[in-house]
Write a structure and sequence with these properties.
Blueprint: E1 2-5, H1 6-17, H2 23-45, E2 48-52, H3 58-62, H4 68-75, H5 81-98, E3 102-105, H6 111-121, E4 131-134, E5 149-153, E6 158-160, H7 165-175, H8 203-211, H9 218-231, H10 238-250, H11 260-266, H12 270-273
Parallel strand pairs: 1-2, 1-4, 2-3, 4-5
Antiparallel strand pairs: 5-6
Helix pairs in contact: 1-2, 1-5, 2-5, 6-10, 7-9
Length: 280
């Protein structure tokens, strides 16, 4: 299966190309991306699954500071992000209604959780279905521990190859994730919110913690557990995992194939009408 990180691709294009909040333009960009990646990977990896971020992400309950800085940056941006998100959500609903793709929009979690759980599900009962993750998010490198999982970055326009995914995950937990507002293990929860500098994770300390997460004391071990919960994609809460798999298995979008052409005509997607066959 092809697992498309929907929000990341849509938002990335808006931000990089500095698109205005134009519904027709953003719709065309999103649909053309889906067409392009389906055309690129369909033969080897099967059908497209569109995976979007849901509301009420469980990480914000576990760690209220999660992605706090992103909200601040968007509030300071010249882009009308409220309108952009309205359009992105609208197009996601249109795709679910008119295209033969499963669309995953799971309340309580991010696209990362859904993509991870669907990739991990292919390990069950000897399925080993080939999986292509279309996303620039480095967090997915940890899933390359499974040989049937590959990743392509739309940002870098190349495959993402991680030779040591277990080591990558272990170091990522220690370093945290600045972009998501997750501090390194030497820093307290509010370090980014307060605008303070993180503790310096020296090579010596990193080596000690890789050998034993308890090596530098209880407080740092507590921070290690915080980061492990937020970063290790296998730590999604069990009820959320079950909901993801049930939603995926219950969807049957193949009857939407005849709707694609009339939809493109209705939305005046002239350039995409010419290659409608590449969607189905």
């Amino acid at each position: 299966m092809i697992l498309l990180d929907y929000n990341a691709i849509a938002i990335g294009n808006v931000a990089v190309q500095k698109l205005a909040a134009d519904e027709g333009l953003i719709r065309h960009m999103i649909l053309n991306s889906i067409r392009m990646y389906r055309q690129k990977f369909h033969k080897e990896y099967g059908e497209m699954v569109v995976v979007a971020d849901g509301m009420n992400n469980w990480r914000k309950d576990a760690f209220p500071q999660y992605k706090a800085s992103r909200r601040k940056k968007r509030s300071e941006s010249t882009i009308d992000w409220n309108e952009v998100f309205r359009i992105i959500n609208l197009v996601r609903e249109e795709i679910q209604e008119n295209f033969p793709y499963k669309v995953m929009h799971e309340d309580g979690c991010e696209a990362d959780d859904v993509i991870a759980q669907l990739a991990l599900e292919t390990q069950e009962f000897g399925k080993h279905e080939p999986v292509m993750i279309v996303s620039a998010d480095g967090d997915f490198k940890q899933l390359q521990v499974h040989k049937n999982v590959r990743q392509f970055s739309p940002l870098l326009k190349k495959f993402v190859v991680e030779p040591n995914p277990r080591t990558y995950l272990a170091e990522h937990i220690l370093k945290g994730d600045t972009g998501d507002g997750v501090p390194n293990v030497l820093s307290d929860d509010d370090v980014f919110v307060d605008g303070r500098r993180q503790g310096i994770l020296s090579a010596k300390k990193k080596a000690a913690l890789l050998d034993d997460p308890r090596a530098l004391g209880d407080e740092i071990y507590r921070n290690y557990q915080r980061n492990q919960q937020l970063i290790d994609l296998t730590n999604c809460p069990e009820p959320v995992k079950e909901s993801i798999i049930n939603n995926f298995e219950q969807q049957d979008p193949w009857g939407n194939r005849p709707k694609v052409f009339p939809y493109l005509v209705q939305k005046r997607c002239k350039l995409l009408i010419e290659c409608v066959g590449e969607f189905i």
